[in-house]
Amino acid sequence: MFSHIKDLQFEAKPDGPDALFARRLQEVLGGKWGELTVANQYLFQGWSCRLPGKYKDLLLDVGTEEMGHVEMICTMIARLLEGAPQNLHEAAADDNPMLAAIYSGENPAQFIHAGGGPLPVDSNGVPWNGSFITASGNLMADFQLNVTAEAQGRLQVARLFHMTDDPGVKQMLRFLLARDTMHQNMWMAALQQLKDDGLEDMPIPDAFPDAEQENEFAYQLLNFSAGEDSAEGRWASGPAPDGKGTFSYDPAPAAHAPAPVLPPGDPRLYGTPPPTPGGIIGAVKDALS
């Protein structure tokens, strides 16, 4: 059960209109790594979590906070569009105090579809998609993806920070950057907590037969590049992070199976048949026999 608090978690008020930046800000709202994605991802992970207590509460706490960030960004976009010129004449007028707003880079859908407000789309107008989120039911797998989601989101906010000179916008972005820093560290701590609690380990899933760990391919780096630069990394020799194997390096990987030869396809699919002694009629008879 949700309860909406009317106050924002942090102020979302620009010093002036900027339709171009309103469009750019859509990316951290409705893009693949935007706030709509992480909010829904954490909530679905929480709703799917079968462990009552700290892990479930953590996911639902952060998912709820991220919904607050969605509202903050939506508010900022609406305010950035307030007073922005809606036609070329307004944008070019010498006596227009909003001349600094960039008309040519705006997203017209924000005015036409939303009446001067935000949309559940990215900066190119591509709609947000539920397939962006992952909730696997395995906390180790989900928490690792959450670290990635926060890293990508923080990277995009940091880039946007350098695309505006508006002090009010920068203040909100500073807050979002700070929360992303917390969330990255939090998910990394949660990964360690899973190990400390003895619930999950690497790799995922952990409940694979021990014989799998003895497979020569489980810890072998295969070189498919010119030179051997990749062999200089920590991943080419020494103990693996899971503590169950030792890295090795193969400078010239060999094939382990012959070239595949496929049988004739179903003639009802109208693929090109291979040459046969009986020609096309023979191929059809062979496929149907």
Task: Please give a structural write-up.
The structure is a single chain. The chain has 289 residues and is mainly alpha-helical. Helices cover 45% and strands 3% of the residues. The protein has a 3-stranded mixed sheet with strand order 1-3-2, with no helix packed on it. Strand 2 and strand 3 form a beta hairpin.
Question: What's the short story on this structure?
Answer:
By secondary structure, the protein is mainly alpha-helical.
Name its key features:
single chain; 289 residues; mainly alpha; Ferritin; 3 domains; 3-stranded mixed beta sheet; 10 helices; extended; Ferritin-like_SF; calcium; metal ion binding; Mn_catalase
Largest sheet: spatial strand order: 1-3-2
Question: What is the CA–CA distance across the termini?
Answer: 61 Å
The CATH topology of the largest domain corresponds to Ferritin
User: What proportion of the residues is helical, as a percent range?
Assistant: 40-55%
Arithmetic mean of pLDDT: 88
Enumerate the spans where pLDDT stays under 50 for 5 or more consecutive residues.
Answer: none
CATH architecture of the largest domain, please?
A: Up-down Bundle
Radius of gyration: 27 Å
Morphology call: extended
The total strand number stands at 3
Cofactor: Ca(2+); Mn(2+)
Family: Belongs to the manganese catalase family.
Keywords: Calcium, Manganese, Metal-binding
GO molecular function: metal ion binding
